[in-house]
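Lab notebook page, bench 4
Experiment: in silico fold of construct C2
Operator: M.H.
Input chain length: 372 residues
Purpose: comparison with the prior construct
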Amino acid sequence: MKLFIITGEHSGDIHAANVVRELRARLPELEIEGIGGENLRAAGVKLFSDHKKMGQVGIGLKMIVDHLGLGKRVVDYLTKEYKPDLVLLVDYGAFNLNVSKFLKRARIKTFYYIPPQVWASRKWRLNTMKKTIDKVLCIFPFEEQMYKDCGIDAHFCGHPLVGQLPEKANREEFFARHGLDPDKKLVSIFPGSRTFELKHLMKLFIKSARELQKKHPDLQFCVSQAPNLKTFPDVPFKVIQGDNHALLSVSDSLILASGTVALEAALYQTPMLIAYKGPVLFYLIYLMVVCTKFVSLPNIILDKLVVPELLQFGAGVNNIVNTTEKLLYDENYRAQHTRQLGQVRALLSDKHCAKEASGQIVTNCCQDNPKG
């Protein structure tokens, strides 16, 4: 039996690798190839291509050419050579949904793990998924019924972070390991994992941190470097790479770009704000396609504004400084903020997501290949 996995970013690579490890335990002779990164490679997956041409944001000729070229090559390989029993798409909606159309025509069974957040924007993608995806393995409890109401087979697997997130780090040990001052509060900056995000957010975040440091000598700052970034801008604060979950868990407050990191921070109950901005044209397009009241996952899950969201024209130094001060020094606000963040875990399932997903894959593989 053959499985092919398509991921497009570092986070998808991690989650897919966890599913692969569960699959190896159940079906040790399952042949697995895919598009991914070091995590899938370490899990024993033969890579058709890595992520060098994948983790891009925006609209540009090079990005379009790279994606079209890779899409054609992988479709040709899957339909003419490899001919897998199942293709597992992981996140990365724009690329994966286009590939799914060709897989459907070739009658290759296709599952989608961590599907596009169509409930947040571009709901028309549901039409494509209904036509091309055999089963959706979703990670938010409200998604399962939404897909079923649209006539799409779906199974709620639980959220991968609930079972995979490391325990909260020991603050004293962490501070000692990274040469931080134990007598100062720690504000950590997570500027994102894409070049696009670094370009538009890093200067804003650093300028805000400098202003905070001027006003509050009791503060120190760290900047998180995403594991997939080989090069990183010079910044005037300590940069930490490879210990980012621990950094999230021991910080007194966080300045974040939007993304999964906000959900990770919520599970640690670390006070935070979201700030995000980009080219005005992209922001206007976003306003046309967005379907939710909020941007950050904790707010969407709770259906209320708990994490401050400073977006585009609201993402300025003064707003970041004032909001961070409130999170750090307003005791009543800070206590209410952290208490509400604690409700996020309760609303997510305690299912082991990778085991659930692998179970669905195994069940379908065995149905189609009784000898397996």
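Observations: The radius of gyration is 21 Å. The chain has two domains: 2-159+350-368, 171-347.
Next step: discuss at group meeting.
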